[in-house]
Description:
The chain is α/β, with parallel strands linked by helices. The chain is built from 27 helices and 23 strands. The protein folds into 5 domains: 3-102 and 193-281, 3-Layer(aba) Sandwich (Rossmann fold), CATH 3.40.50; 112-184, Orthogonal Bundle (Arc Repressor Mutant, subunit A), CATH 1.10.10; 318-381 and 545-643, Rossmann fold (3-Layer(aba) Sandwich); 383-540, Orthogonal Bundle (PCRA, domain 4); 673-718. Helix 18 crosses helix 19 (437-446) and helix 19 (437-446) crosses helix 20. The longest helix has 21 residues, at 452-472. The chain is globular, with a radius of gyration of 29 Å. It comes from Aliikangiella marina.
Amino acid sequence: MDVTPILDGLNKAQREAVSSPDAALLVLAGAGSGKTRVLVHRIAWLISVEQLSPHCIIAVTFTNKAAQEMRGRVENLLGHSASAMWIGTFHGLAHRLLRAHARDANLPDTFQILDSDDQLRVIKRVMKEMNLDDTEWPPKQAQWFINKQKDEGKRPKDIKHQGDLFTSVHCKVYFQYEEACKIGGLVDFGELLLRTYELLRDNQHLRDHYQQRFQHLLVDEFQDTNGIQYAWLKLISNKDCGVTIVGDDDQSIYGWRGAKIENIQRFDRDYADVKTIRLEQNYRSTGTILKAANAVIANNQERMGKNLWTEDDEGEPISLYAAFNEQEEARFISSRINEWHEDGNAFADCAILYRSNAQSRVLEEYLLQRQIPYRIYGGLKFFERAEVKDTLAYLRLMYNHQDDAAFERVVNTPPRGLGQKSVEKIRETARAEQTNLWQAAWKVVEDKQLSPKANGALLMFLELIKQGYQEFHELPLEEQIQLTIEASNLMEMYAKEKGEKALARKENLAELASAAREFDVDDYPELSPMTAFLAHASLEAGDTQAEQYEDCVQLMTLHSAKGLEFPLVFIAGMEEKLFPHMMSMDEPDKLEEERRLAYVGITRAMKKLYLLYAEKRRLWGKDTYPAVSRFIREIPAQLKEEVRLNSQIATPTFSSGATQDVVNDGIEFKLGQMVNHPKWGSGVILNFEGEGDRTVVHVSFDCGESKRLMLAYARLEAL
DNA sequence: GTTATCCGGATTTTT
DNA sequence: TCCGGATAAC
Length: 719
């Protein structure tokens, strides 16, 4: 067997990982160390050298994107299709299992998936029925509670509580919510995992079947697994199953969402003879950037230990820029991006990262002003848009009449005269008859429980759904969607809306039809094409923006930047209370997670990194004067370089500042002036505030500190 | 059923 | 400050 193509071009540690004979392998893969490459080549190795059938391999990722990329690269390497292999997200694979064994899992064949938005609506309804005051008991909190329990594998009956109100009330909500899901044939994200887990746990026949089938399990981003995912993996991989897990404890940034880094150590305990391999050679960043990242993360106590290195040059120092305020921060970034582009570089090679989404607004303003094209990640995904969800809700209801969530969503969308009172009547009937809204609605119509007008409208609606299915369900997906949009009058409703919104909505509906045309049905041969499409829409919410091919600057939170890389990176808002965030500063665990986030941010940069902070930032309508982030201080001085305002003097904002000269004790101070302070040493003047005796001067000192000082007392020397 | 107004809340997010 | 959601008034 010629293994050259599989091992060629890999370094020693990578080769060792790819060709490891060990049954339990833990690969600690640092940022930019070729993690995906190792996974892909390991799969190829298992198939071509160890002669495992692709049929026996299961590979799990967290995002659809990662799953797609992995499949694509495996096929590329092997030179043939890998369709027999199970590659997917935890949720995608769980869904697949549940579809194949819906009866055994006690689900209707037509079960539909709730996304978190749908889930919240159902919870709200349930809580209303329970007469819980939603100010005292916020539905969001109940949703969080339920999901947390499911992530830990707990049903209402498994939750222990000693009469504390919070837990006992939420348990009841959880219980009622489960009932509602059962009646509606609905499954939320957490349920996909929990239900699959219980299915395999309680059904020995199925468990044996899958344990026999899967001979090797691979897991990507293992540090992000939560309790139920870990339990799930253990069930699938029996003693004879090879397991390869890949992860980086230093890049665990989803603890707040239930991810447990401890699962890595737990793996070490639970599996026999775990072989650990560290990938520490980095192929992405310059030496300077890596040293900075290493220095920052070294401040964390809870680490498995790892030190990235590179054969690459030291590269440029990391530039620090002390902006006057958030506007000036944005101004600086956009002007640097402009220069970058004028030097012949692509906008798309450049990213602006920030801790929280609110920071993107000012940045956008300035990019817009300079006519720099940009793309913001985050926000509503395609399949989450209201118009798209409305259309899909019609289809869901057509294919699964018991889907109460869909029923609620469209029973009066577009408005057809079925207000709160009419809907409440239907709910009441449903409760009394222990049935779904669809059945109840028919009964309400038959018994003429509503006013003649509402009764007529409801009947029209019910007929529309019933006939819609009969007339459309054999047509191609695209036509079904097109006809549904028309027949439901949704298009008409949106057309009435004014402004750009209406236009965008129309475009999205057209886009929905075309997404259906391009949808590949093959994944679920046993499902009707529409059911498969609807599941796809819930599991893979799609991209945020359509035009991703244009050359534009990438704006995103540090969280969403994980896994990406850019030649030029700006991290904005490097300030205490913003990053590390105020809410994560008090507890050591949370602070360490913030630091890992900083580590992730720094290691995104390939060639050049800018760290920015503002002297003054307007937060929630109030001016704040934040301190420089500790993460900047944790980077050794020799790797950093303060960007001087002197070099910026030609920019409009500051040329006007020349009028702001201030005289104190006969010494003349200017913006951008180099000064010396007895305690802080040399620095540069950023701004003046106030007048006369009360003049406050902002100075950014070379030691990294920046201070606001009363000029009269500051004993500053002009240099 | 639509529009106006008030109030509260305000990290991070994938499936 | 600014956004969205919920309520009240038309």
